[in-house]
User: Which sequence fits this backbone?
């Protein structure tokens, strides 16, 4: 069973969190609430998230400060952040959001369908990366285990190849979808990075096939 992705919703107003949950419930993922920047940072200490929806105007630690803390942490710096704000102070305010590390900046009231579509892209990218890490872990086990019975090794290689092919197909379809929809540059760049990692893993797996000679090096886990 594929584990659901976690989406972090950060807003100091309960009615806004409830609205976000209603909009994103159709994605059938795990929605985690945080009513402050401090609470969001605590949640990020223990759980992995596909994307963060972060309100800008919050008492105490606002969205910009919260994002700065998130981007300074090694564990969380690569999590996409979508800023949500009810106040539009013009281009300077928007630029501050992107400078803080946001991949998108959406003013309220927003179109529920657009928000759901944007979040779904990052959820898909997160799931593909999880699948890729799983395949890399299996491949490492094969390499570290050395040469086992020929039939067993061949069966494992075939299974790994089939699993990787499924991820490659899904990643290719997602990249085409992003190109067709003229999606955010951050999402396109993330998809391209995923494809490069898939290519490296495929080369490593191909090098294990009989007759290729030598153990390959695996792509870095980034």
Assistant:
């Amino acid at each position: 069973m594929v584990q659901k992705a976690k989406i972090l919703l950060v807003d100091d107003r309960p009615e806004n969190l409830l609205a976000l949950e209603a909009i994103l419930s159709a994605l059938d993922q795990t929605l985690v609430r945080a009513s402050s920047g401090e609470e969001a940072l605590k949640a990020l200490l223990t759980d992995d998230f596909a994307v963060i929806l972060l309100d800008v105007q919050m008492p105490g630690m606002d969205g910009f400060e919260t994002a700065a803390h998130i981007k300074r942490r090694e564990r969380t710096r690569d999590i996409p952040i979508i800023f949500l704000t009810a106040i539009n102070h013009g281009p300077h305010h928007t630029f501050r959001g992107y400078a803080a590390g946001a991949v998108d900046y959406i003013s309220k009231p927003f179109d529920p369908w657009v928000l759901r579509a944007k979040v779904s892209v990052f959820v898909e990218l997160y799931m593909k990366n999880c699948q890729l890490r799983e395949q890399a872990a299996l491949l490492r086990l094969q390499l570290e285990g050395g040469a086992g019975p020929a039939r067993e090794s061949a069966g494992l290689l075939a299974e790994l190849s089939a699993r990787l092919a499924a991820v490659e197909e899904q990643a290719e379809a997602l990249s085409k979808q992003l190109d067709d929809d003229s999606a955010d540059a951050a999402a396109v760049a993330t998809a391209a990075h995923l494809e490069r990692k898939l290519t490296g893993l495929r080369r490593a797996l191909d090098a294990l096939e009989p007759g290729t000679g030598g153990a390959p090096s695996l792509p870095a886990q980034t």
About this structure: The CA atoms of residues 14 and 35 lie 8 Å apart.
